[in-house]
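Morning. Coffee machine broken again, so started the prediction first thing and wrote up yesterday's gels while waiting. Chain of 385 residues, entered below exactly as on the submission form.
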Amino acid sequence: MIHFRIYNTISALPNSWDALPTHDLFLKTAFLEALEQSSPRNISSHYLCVFKDEILIGTAVLQRVQMYADDIFRKTSNNRFKQIAKQLIAKIVRGNTIVVGNLMHTGQHGLFFLTEEITQDGFLKIVYEAIEELSNSIKKEFNKNTRIIVFKDYFEDDTIHTGLDFFESNNLYKAQVQPNMLFNISQEWNTEQDYISAFKKKYRDRYKRARKKGSTLKLIELDLDTIKKQSNALYKLYENVSDNARVNSFKLSQNHFYSLKEHLNEDFKLYGYYLNQELVGFYTLVLNQETLETYFLGYKKELQHDYQLYLNMLYNMVSFGIENNFKTIVFARTAMEIKSSIGAKPHKMHIYIKHTNNFIANTLLKLIVKHMNPMREWQERHPFK
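Came back before lunch.
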């Protein structure tokens, strides 16, 4: 008999959760516990276990996200039309959303099941039953309705797209979001110089200029104690970048990087850039099996141009990936053009989403998704010979 149970804490999960043969670090309890202890104030995670008799055959991460206008729009505008548009958007998306997956990171990091034990359609139906149970629990405990349901993020070749009957029967529509920028590391590259040698002259010259501008920066990996000591500085640098985004759905807690380092140890890296002994930028990496996942970063905006901080970060991420024998680097969304200039390629991604209120709200939600994930015109660069 197949049945399910929702857990609200990592400590309550059965030991068999980590025994499932998923190779995704973001679905392992070490990462989930780190997130649980440092989650944004508006996100709480719940964990679905699907059992066949008493054998665990599938898992899912369900996040309850409370949308606040201040988090959605941190950049203010005096333009009256923009203010009205933002008020309308906030009215539609404000409230409780249930996300299947991890809202804080690009990619499908929410579902796993044993295909030999349960069909995809059968598993998705149970996930939806769990969403309804969680929605009822939120209503009972907090007197709040769940307004939006999202399944995120799926590449075009993901088998989940064969389950269209399931999504259509539950009024979830498919929406394309900004692409995930992926970098495949050539087997011929053993060093950073091998990578640079593969560039066309224009991009080799660009690399040399960026490295020259950043030559006075000192790059240091921060250990757990240093991350704790530099907590305030790291958070301010993160805010410099995060608060500049057009749209946000969360804000990290200040202890987030410390918690990840504490729980993931060598599977989480934080590198800081120092100028005259002052921390002026940083980036983070999650080592996910054969995939290197770029995570959050931050820097002093006033130093960005003179030191080419962001571009040097991208080069350093690639160098780390090559020298540590990763096959793929995930550069996630945004800044597509500059990421393509260092060799990353866009891969289309989709979500399934619905508003639970009515047809009008769902229609408006479609427009809002397009606004929050605009398919901007951008020129893909081709840096290699």
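The radius of gyration is 21 Å. Going to sketch it on the whiteboard this afternoon.
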